[in-house]
Design a protein that fits this description.
The chain is mostly helical. The chain has a single domain (41-173), classed as Tetracycline Repressor, domain 2 (Orthogonal Bundle), CATH 1.10.357.10. Helices cover 72% and strands 0% of the residues. The protein is built from nine helices and no strands. The protein is globular and about 50 Å long.
């Protein structure tokens, strides 16, 4: 079902993706789709969680080369940005759904955040984050999603997005437990 939703949202804006078509493409009854995903928001937050897990798997297979600390966080964010920009309509669907979801109603939205924060902290080599580390990563993630949305909406270019992400890392991660070595 997630693969079918991803395929449809790769070719169509979120508003044009219909649950009936997702069920048809996934070869399941519409009732089955709604049993697992009561709304399109639930569905695309789950797609985003799966995408975050794919990003983590890719990083485990091929971690950022030659970078440590906050530079590693920057490298992860740039890779995630480039990956998501390959399928802009899908990225928009996931981000819109996650941003509009109440975590009390769509529990996967909290998992998306927690797993993405864990990816960034792991990349930086932070195994026991301080309150400052957690706050910095939370704020950086929120800023990154805004930068990504601006890039998806053609408000900024990819090089501008990457420069903004670099600036955000430099500004927000200054008090992080692990810093750049350069």
């Amino acid at each position: 079902m997630l693969a079918a939703a991803s395929e449809l949202a790769t070719d169509h804006e979120l508003a044009r993706v219909q649950m009936q078509e997702v069920a048809r493409r996934a070869d399941v009854a519409i009732a089955t789709l709604y049993r697992y995903f009561p709304s399109k928001t639930h569905l695309f937050v789950a797609v985003m969680l799966e995408e975050i897990r794919h990003i983590q798997e890719a990083l485990e297979r091929r971690p950022p080369d030659g970078v440590v600390g906050t530079d590693a966080i920057y490298a992860v964010l740039v890779r995630a940005t480039r990956s998501l920009l390959r399928r802009p309509l899908l990225a928009n669907a996931m981000i819109q759904s996650n941003a509009s979801a109440n975590s009390a109603v769509v529990p996967d939205t909290a998992k998306v955040e927690q797993e993405f924060w864990a990816i960034l902290l792991t990349a930086a080599g932070v195994s026991e984050p301080t309150d400052d580390d957690s706050t910095a990563v939370r704020l950086l993630t929120q800023l990154w999603l805004g930068v990504l949305q601006s890039c998806l909406n053609d408000r900024i270019t990819v090089p501008d997005a990457e420069a903004d992400i670099r600036s955000a890392c430099d500004l927000l991660l200054v008090r992080m437990s692990v810093h750049t070595t350069g």
